[in-house]
Amino acid sequence: MGGLLALSSLAGCASYSPAPLADAPDLAQGLAGITVDPAAMPLPALRRHAVDPARPLDVDAVAMVAVARNPELKAARAQHGVAVAEAFTAGLLPNPQLSVDYGFLTSGPAVMDAFTLGLMQDVMPFLTRSSRKDAAAATLRGAELDLLWQEWQVVSQARLLVVRAHAFERQRAVLEANRALFADRYRRTSTAMGRGDETLPNVVSDLAALNGVETQLHDLEQQALRNRMDLNALLGLTPAATLALAPLTAGDLPLPPADRIRADLPQLAGRRPDLLALRAGYRAQEQAVWQAVLGQFPALSIGSNRARDTSNVKTQSLALSISLPLFDGNQGAIAVQRATREQLRQDYQARLDAAVAGVGQGLLALDQLEAQARATADSIATLERAAADADAAFRAGSLEERTFADLQGALLSRRLEALKLDQAVQEQRVDLMTLIGGDVPENQATAPDATEKATP
């Protein structure tokens, strides 16, 4: 027994310490005291940026805080730790099996107790160890790339929420200006009607226009509140936390020219983490097929037995255990692993096709949105000139109230449409920045290999 305890102590023992769950949420009231490491960011553009929580945050600074504090990313990083542990486990070998049989002499002509001591070791894990380690390394690489892709998604979501926050503020300003205009018109016409100088239809027209603007404003306020709460949740802040945002400028969402993006599409698979993760998973499955093929050979265990009988005769034997593949040659496992490999191959092809098509569709959508934005801007200029003429005519008494209100309502609708189109253009740029993987290399011949880490 003492020998067994000595053998067990050779392997070492891990100690246990409890890790209780938290009793309170880990949500910050604000950004005070929060630090962000630019070197840990998933995109080169963010690594060149700095975050100062004391100043209003631009779109990249918000994305960096999101990567550092997002609760779901924290959980994903913990899951990555599980993948690291599993990769370590894959390289371990099974322990040899020690057996002891001790027979106490109770009666008879014998002179002493008998014993049998055996030691056996399974050989197959030694033969598959290299393949298992390669598969585990590929699986770990895939987990790292999946985490990187999740970080890209958080960056994209943070940028979208910031774009919407600014868009809602611009739309609010237009609606507030029009509400003030129609409120003033309604006060004037209702006061004039009280004096008998105005008719009820004109007053009702102004009131309807005012109510319509207020309804739009209330809807916009609800959208802005939901957007603010979504952004706070993404950053790990409480719902009521106030986040100061810097103005959004034209250079905050840089996108390479369309021709460069299209020319780089053949290299997309070498930069997108989701595609690289699928490649890593496929490499792991290749090793699984190889292990299944090795599994068709008979399982082999070797060892040695030392024995002594009750008459003090001692023997030393060589033990060999081998399975006979009479009924199962591991063909079922091989078929399953090969079918799984084919499924992964088709999954990768489908994702690659969708990725390339998604970039092409995004470029077409962006072209259309930009053309619509230009056309809307031209129509607004025409409406603004007509509205100025109508205002002068209305003040001179040569234009009826309803016509004036209708024209102002049309101008409001076009201005809101222009702002929403501008928002759609910016959101489409954010989507494309994610789909192409950030920066597009200038030299198309030096795209990173798929086995390297995705660093767009």
From TrEMBL:
GO terms for molecular function: efflux transmembrane transporter activity. SUPFAM superfamilies: Outer membrane efflux proteins (OEP) (SSF56954). Gene3D superfamilies: Outer membrane efflux proteins (OEP). Pfam families: OEP. PANTHER family: OUTER MEMBRANE CATION EFFLUX PROTEIN. This is Outer membrane protein TolC. Belongs to the outer membrane factor (OMF) (TC 1.B.17) family.
